[in-house]
Amino acid sequence: PWPPRGWTLVRMNASIRLVLSLAVLAAAPACSGSDASGPTRTLDTPLAQSVDVGVMVERHTPFAGDYSRVTALVDATHVEVIGLRTLALQTAVAPYGLRVDFSSVSAGATRARIDTAMRQRAVLVMACVDNLGSVSWTAAKLSPATGTLTRSEAETMAEQKLVGQCTTSGLQQLIKAIG
């Protein structure tokens, strides 16, 4: 069943959807990674050049249930280099989770490349969402179609605790450790 048990699906009336759709369309050029104000990013772009650290620090949140901040944090890692995504939050019971579903993937995006990119980005997102326990992802037409990184695995990967690392210097250190 959709959404899976414990996951939150946000419902909106038609007028709110229209306003949000127009806002997304207006913001799309700024989010594409290929506009005049920012570099073009691909799966080959080094992690340090793929992440907007300033936005991540600004959007830090103690709560996984803050959908707008969590979305901004995911977007600051530029997951669009992987493909078109939707997000779902599991906030009914701890440990809280984030799932990123890719409905399509970029050319050249293999299972291994997606897993590497998502594991790196999951560490950074968990550093900036204090009570986020895991990040999972799915990718259409790839097998296996899912991956997950828990907070414990992320801390092992980063070789340090993640809480308190959502600062400019903390995130830069994490990027060096995992990039």
What would you note in describing this structure?
The structure is a single chain. The chain is an alpha+beta fold and 179 residues long. The radius of gyration is 16 Å and the shape is globular. It is built from seven helices and five strands; from the N terminus they run βααααββαββαα. Mean pLDDT is 85; it is low at 12-36. The protein has a five-stranded mixed β-sheet with strand order 1-2-3-4-5. It has helices at 14-31, 47-50, 53-59, 67-76, 111-128, 151-158, 168-178, and strands at 7-8, 83-90, 96-105, 132-139, 146-150.
Query: What fraction of residues sit in β-strands?
Result: 15-25%
Task: Indicate the percent of residues in helices.
Answer: 40-55%
Lateral strand order in the biggest sheet: 1-2-3-4-5
First-last Cα distance: 36 Å
Q: Report the principal-axis shape.
A: globular
Number of strands: 5
Number of helices: 7
Topology at a glance:
Blueprint: E1 7-8, H1 14-31, H2 47-50, H3 53-59, H4 67-76, E2 83-90, E3 96-105, H5 111-128, E4 132-139, E5 146-150, H6 151-158, H7 168-178
In brief, what are we looking at here?
The protein has a 5-stranded mixed sheet.
